[in-house]
Design brief:
The protein contains eleven helices and 13 strands. By secondary structure, it is of the alpha/beta class. Strand 3 and strand 4 form a beta hairpin.
Length: 295
Amino acid sequence: MTGKSNPFLRSRRIPAAAFWLAAAALAFFSLLPARASAQVRNDIVPDTWQGDVLRPKPDLHGLTKLRFVTDSDYPPFHYLDEVGTLTGLNVDLAKSICEVLEVECEVKDVDWAEIFPSLDRGEADAAIASIRISPESLEKAYFTSRYYATPARFVAQKTSDLKDVRPETIEGKKVGVAKGTGHEAYLKLFFPDVAMASFDTIDDAEKALKSGAIDLVFGDGIGLTFWINGVISEGCCEFRGGPYLDTKFFGEGVGIAVKKGNRQLAEILNYALEQVHASGRYEELFLRYFPMSFF
């Protein structure tokens, strides 16, 4: 993020150039007919809300404005577009929350290092910056329920016969993974008989898969989605098996952060998130930025 690593993010940063290349390749999916689009939406399960009974409207007395902060360099979640306007899934979701609550909305970008201090100093009410809910981040802020989670996925060459990916079906196969990640730990535990190839970066594993040096890659679904559908992969590969959402290895998901102890605002935001879901607005936004599901 803005040149610095972000230990609270679930997935790797997607460089803006790579995002725009992949977005161009995916753009035609936004033109799917309504029936086809509905089918894609049904396959997207980004968080824990599955049409549960809606909670009652909380007391909004005195709440007239919400001030959100985010970062500006993590497309397609939050980024500056071609004309310098802050946009992305997180930005549009924040605005949708304000619409539900019928309050004035402000969304501004700050340096990543200023996300939590902005909450502590009272300069912002909430942070919507793809911050994963983790023991480290919970020490710094209080969180809403997660509004998306990133699954782990396997990727194979399209010509591969590995259609049914299970521990017994890929025994002895070469599987690329990034070193020191939850994905590597998950493979070691649940796929102990694969020939695991640990790479310094997931980019290196992708290159090896494309060249045919390995049989599969196992990694973060979001980053792999943009690689699969981007120019660099040259259409070589596709998802196989999964998704995998074990919170012990891949995290609790991403939530909206508020100042530590501000449970009341978190519950108000949870109510708004549920309403955004129930109206269909969440699926609309998710498909806008992810026309190809990573689930």
